[in-house]
Structure prediction request, 172 residues.
Amino acid sequence: MDKALFRKIMLNKRNSLENRVKYDEIIFNKLISFIDKYENIASYYSFNSEVDTLKINSWILSQNKNLYLPKVTNGVINFYKIDNLNDVSLGCFNVLEPNSNIIVSSDEIDCMIIPLLAYNKDFYRMGYGKGYYDKYLKDYDGFKLGIAYNIQYANDLIVESHDEKLDFVITN
Prediction:
């Protein structure tokens, strides 16, 4: 099966998930105990059927930790410090992105919470197909943490040489 069809199948599976609010709460509770030890955390603004990150991002800021969110410019993803979750606007692919133009260096980020469409037992992930995260993660030395619903697990995930492995995936 090619990656485009696999992505479509996994997206349909995630879109049809019931009990999403309950599962988001379970993931949130697991995640905060996991990331509490980190001070500089990159996350993202979830959209559509992704695990909801609004509560996660709010918690990070409420704990006086540094929150960094991604923005894609000219085909490259970078992260920007956020002090207020409202300081964003619609950007690439109609995803909320920071209004800031001050890029943070990857070595300033202790832990990254990373979106995904699918993952396997070895913690390889499949994203949306543009490779933004794989390119960024190639030179990133911090902790790489995926969040997903357990229905996103795929034993037969297609892994290629440019795909970057996560350190862990938290699910419901």
